[in-house]
Write a sequence for this structure.
């Protein structure tokens, strides 16, 4: 079985958040991790809270603990995090599988990068996330009946 | 294919499945006022009546269990990837893996039991 040889991450936690001159994709990478961790935390709590309905405890309705405005805002943040994480994740899968990175070419000066191919994909992914977010916002602001 | 590559491939596949399942979950549960899907009792999609109506449908019980399993795998494997990037010592890395597997299995057990029990309760007429 082949073992993956890992390199020391000397920067530690700072290695996730810092590292030099970045393009917008690097900021998307940080946000992808932060939204992922946020959604995971929500999933762990959500599993407990929704499991309680078996005992007849519905904490999100009527006078339930989670039926307060602050949690409505939190719910919208979860939808926003999902919208970003999902569409950016789809972009990452496409790039991982070799799509949208351009064809390999000879490194002849002036060098070309794959950013020119990847950047439009990022823009499309963010536009789709924005549409999802707007629909979610319309719902959360109570405009939908 | 090494185990690392295999699990990473599963992680990506789980992400694509989540995009569909969690996307539908978000649309049905959290955008109910806009789309009115699978909520026959008024506009509040997360009301007790609508929750119990969905719980009574076996397709919702099964898809909730599937969503939970795929979500836990994707989320906890992602967390493990982030933690292991900190160049942990092998013993600590193994402990992280064991803890995350146990947490995942525990929550999957709890959530699956709850989804099935809620289905049974809803079929019997509800508990409120």
């Amino acid at each position: 079985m082949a073992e993956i040889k890992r390199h020391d991450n000397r920067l530690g936690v700072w290695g996730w958040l810092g590292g030099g001159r970045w393009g917008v994709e690097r900021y998307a990478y940080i946000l992808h991790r932060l939204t992922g961790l946020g959604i995971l935390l929500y999933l762990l709590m959500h599993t407990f809270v929704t499991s309680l309905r078996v005992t007849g405890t519905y904490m999100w309705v009527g006078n339930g603990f989670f039926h307060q405005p602050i949690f409505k805002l939190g719910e919208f943040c979860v939808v926003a995090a999902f919208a970003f994480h999902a569409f950016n994740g789809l972009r990452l899968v496409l790039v991982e599988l070799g799509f949208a990175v351009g064809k390999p070419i000879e490194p002849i000066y002036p060098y070309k990068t794959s950013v020119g191919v990847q950047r439009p994909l990022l823009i499309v992914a963010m536009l789709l996330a924005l549409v999802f977010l707007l629909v979610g916002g319309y719902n959360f602001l109570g405009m939908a009946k | 294919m090494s185990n690392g590559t295999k699990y990473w491939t599963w992680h990506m596949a789980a992400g694509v499945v989540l995009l569909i399942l969690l996307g539908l979950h978000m649309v049905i549960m959290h955008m109910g006022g806009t789309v009115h899907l699978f909520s026959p009792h008024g506009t509040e999609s997360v009301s007790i009546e609508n929750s119990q109506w969905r719980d009574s449908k076996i397709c919702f019980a099964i898809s909730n269990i599937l969503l939970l399993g795929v979500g836990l795998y994707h989320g906890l494997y992602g967390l493990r990837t982030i933690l292991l990037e900190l160049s942990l010592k092998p013993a600590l890395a193994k402990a992280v893996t064991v803890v995350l597997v146990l947490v995942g299995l525990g929550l999957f057990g709890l959530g699956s039991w709850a989804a099935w029990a809620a289905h049974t309760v809803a079929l019997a007429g509800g508990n409120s």
